[in-house]
Sequence to fold (325 residues):
Amino acid sequence: MIKIAIIGFGTVGQGVAELLVRKRDEIEKKIGKFKVVAISDLTGSISGEFKLEDAIEIRKKGKLPEERATSEIVEQEDYDVMIEVTTTRLDESGIAYMKTALNRGASVITSNKSIAVALPDLLKLAEKKNARLLYEATVGGAMPVIRLLNSYLALCEIRSLNGILNGTCNYILTRMEEEGLPYSQVLREAQEMGIAESNPTADVEGIDAGIKLVILANTIGIPAKFEEVEREGITKITPHAFKVAMQKGFTIRLIAEANRRKLRVSPRLVKINSPLAIKGTLNALLIHTDTAGEIFVAGRGAGKFETASAILSDLYELFRCSGNR
Fold:
C-alpha cells in the first residue's frame, strides 16, 4: 500500500485529490493500491482514517478539521511520498517541508517552484536518503518537459533552451498583436477574466518565467540562480512595436533562454512562422541538442487539472520504477 501525504490543499492540491478519486481504478492498475494518510494546509489538517472524497468536500466548504501544524504532519505521519503543492516562496522556508520529508527517506513530488533556490542540493539529498524528488509540475503545467530532458534526452548534449514559460504574458502579447490594443487595456481585461493576477508583477516582469528557467537550467546541468537571470518584462511593449515587427515578418514574445553563456528572459522578435509564435495562454519549449536536432513541445502551462496531471505522471514514474505493485 502506497501511503501519500498531501501538503497544500488549495487549487492544485484539491485537483490532485479529485484526480486520485476519479482515476483510482486506473491508477491502482498502474502502480498498486494507495491511500492518502494525511492532508495539511494553512487552514488545518486531516489524518488517520478518512475518505479522500470527504476531505475534498470539507475543504471546499471551509477549513480542514484538525489543528495540527503542517510541520507536525510532515515530521510525524507515516508516508512513502509527500505531494508538496504549497505556494512558491523563493527562500529556504519554501522547501523546508521537502527537506524534512527527504531526510526521512520519503520521496517528494512537487509543483512548488521554490525548488529553484536549491535544486542541486535537494537532488543530492534525495539520492543520499535513497528517495526521489520529482518536479514535472513546476515548469509548463501539463507540458512534459522535465522528464523529456531527464530521460528521453539524457544522453544528448542540450545546447540551449528557448521557451515561452508564462501563459499570462503570452495571452497579453497575443491580444496586443491581433487587436492592436495597448498593454494596460489587455492587462485589465486579463485580470477581469482571471488570466492575470490582481498583482501581476511576477508574470509581467518576467519573474515567474525566470524562476522556471532556473529550474530548467539546473535540470540540464547548468548551475543557475535566479539572481543570474537577465530579466526584462513586457510592460513597455506598445502596439506600434507590434506593427513594425509584423511588417518585417516577426511578432513579439517573452522568451526565456538558457545556454552555457547566459540566462535571459526578455521580449524578443520571433518569426511569424516559428513554433515559438504560439498564441493565447500556451507554453512552449524549443530544445536544441547535438544528436536529436531541435525538439519542440507545447501545451497548457497552468490550470488546476493540468498541473495535477503532471503530479500524477510523477506518481506513476516514481512507483513504476520502484516496482511497487
Observations:
- The chain has 13 helices and twelve strands.
- Residues 14 and 311 are 12 Å apart (CA to CA).
